[in-house]
Amino acid sequence: MKQTTLLLSFLLLIFCSCNQDVDDDYTTIQESELDLLLERSIDVASNGEGAGFFTLPESGDYNSIPQDPLNPITQDKVDLGRLLLHETGMGGKPKMNDRKFQYACATCHPVASAFASGRRQGVGEGGIGFGLKGEGRLADLEMPLDSLDVQPVRVPTLLNLAYQDVALWDGRFGGTGTNAGTEAGWDLIPENFEGFQGIEVQAMQGQDEHRLLIDEYFIDTFNYRVMFDAAFGDVPEEERYSRKTAALAIAAYNRTLLSNEAPWQAYLKGDLEAMSDREKRGAIVFMNEGKCVQCHTGPALKDRSFHAMGFADFDNAPDAIVKPDVDMSLVTRGRGSFTGNPQDDYKFKTPTLYNLVDTEFYGHGSSFSSVLDVVRYKNNGAPQNTNVPSSQLASQFGNLGLSENQMNDLTVFIERSLRDSNLVRYVPEEVNSGFCFPANDAQARIDIGCD
To answer: Which of 223, 301, 345, 420 could bond to 262 as cystine, CB 3.0-4.6 Å?
Structure first.
């Protein structure tokens, strides 16, 4: 490791010694030298493991995808989960009866916005319309506020979830690994005590939170009994058609949602033409001066830690809907609100960086709408939330000294090299109910083209 670091420093010295103002941006380095420098940067960032450290497996290579030992991935589970995530027939437990069968998990996680919300704040029950990618799903302001299904934080993407063992921005879902020692906060999360990981727990708890229902009516009316039998034939019949088995199928499917066709992945696998010179320069900044890789690491470009970057909270957005029962003082504390440890205050789970350009809103409070603005923010180090003590801010925040060229190249790498343009391969052509999806209210059906 020490020899590799010295070699990288030596290469940087050679490549950047002629014209300090220009070469610090790597703009005069030839393509072959860029590839060599990027190779060395990858080697250092991976502690000598090389490109494989950052490579995502194929979505059908279940043995290589991280999974919950209590929920091994099978094809039958994935097939069932693919339908259930998009099935608006699961919207069977609304607070307002006229909203029945109008929403699904995918309403707030549509493929058109990279399995994240297409708007600043996702709206499940109580939403009207959809638009092109979810940006047109508006809250029905005539609906009682306590009946709207809206959350006080940004809806995250489902991409690359397999590379985390906890879920939610504060990481409260998940009963192993990262959450060891946090049992005092599990009173309302019985699935944590069962030992399930975060993706599985989220799929169970999410059905309750978002008013989704699996019951005998759903199973038989929408013809899902055979699929549940195939996926969970080893589960006693009286337990087979349930919230829990539905969640395990959805979680198994979610683990296969990998952005493994992005140009960066092709480059890691040996296609040196998959990225432009500018993207390669951005990748070098990502691995070095930008300090991005210190948190955004591994195949999913995210660690399993929590960091304070000082992003503003959701209630600062002009169009935010914050329900009266939400305590924003707890939301702003992030991980600390769950663990009770002041050292965790204002820290939030590291998100994946893949397909950011498709999502349009960034940060747990959706406080940015441009990748370049986030890069500049991180470079400048002036927190949006001035209540965050400087002692809590991540060491990777601020004082980076990146030039405008470096920030622009880094943005191009994130937006282009990390974008998998073929995510539609994960989506079914139809669901068993025959309903419109990912939303099924009258305006959404018009927007999506179902009517």
So the answer is: 420
